[in-house]
Design a protein that fits this description.
By secondary structure, the chain is mostly helical. It has helices at about 5-35, 35-40, 75-105, 110-130, 130-140, 145-150, 170-195; strands at about 50, 70-75, 150-155, 160-165. It has one domain (about 5-40, about 80-200). The radius of gyration is 21 Å and the shape is elongated.
């Protein structure tokens, strides 16, 4: 007859399952509902060239000093958009994890929650900047998948272009899969920190 798990083991498994469910379920909410359209579009911008606030590059030969409207380095604008997204994502994730665990009668130490949120936030920022994700895709031999499964975008003039990232693309599928896998580690870390003897003193 299989022995029943100890109370600590049962608690850890329950907390891990709860946190993993929260992290996994909140992720698409933050990506598709909480994130602004501008941040979703701009967060992957890279380069030293200048762009307008909407991400449109300055015309060839244009001097950014002479612009009548604000212009930014593409990488600066991209990093700012990614940071805004990660900030809102982290806030919603923390608030949801705290609310769910408290509602279920478990007080997870704030330090443990912050540690798991930090793992998700830091990796989310890196992955959502896109270039690191593309390099990882190359490392794992996924470039063919990325190049083959692009998404068709139609602008207001009816012109169709292929987009490597965003909904409907392989890169987005790789993005989501990686975020979810990292969420396992974040949930495990939070659970371990919350249930180790030192955390109960």
């Amino acid at each position: 007859m299989t022995a029943l798990p100890s109370s600590l083991t049962a608690e850890r498994l329950a907390l891990f399952g709860t946190l993993l469910s929260v992290f996994d379920a909140v992720h698409p909410l933050c990506d598709h509902w909480v994130q602004s359209s501008d941040d979703a579009r701009l967060k992957g911008l890279h380069g030293d060239h200048y762009v307008y606030a909407d991400g449109t590059p300055l015309p060839d030969g244009a001097d950014p000093v002479d612009s009548d409207v604000p212009v930014y380095r593409a990488s600066v604008l991209g990093r700012a958009a990614a940071c805004r997204h990660v900030r809102s994502y982290t806030a919603v994730q923390l608030a949801t994890a705290l609310a769910v665990t408290r509602a279920l009668g478990h007080r997870v130490p704030l330090g443990a929650l912050l540690a798991g949120a930090a793992v998700n936030a830091a990796t989310h920022l890196v992955i959502d900047r896109r270039e690191p994700l593309l390099k990882l895709a190359d490392l794992f031999g996924k470039r063919g998948y990325v190049d083959h499964c692009t998404a068709a975008r139609v602008n207001d003039k009816g012109e169709v272009t292929a987009e490597v990232s965003g909904p409907g693309s392989a890169l987005m599928e790789l993005d989501q899969a990686l975020h979810r896998a990292i969420g396992i580690g974040a949930a495990a870390l939070t659970t371990w920190l919350a249930t180790r003897p030192r955390a109960r003193r």
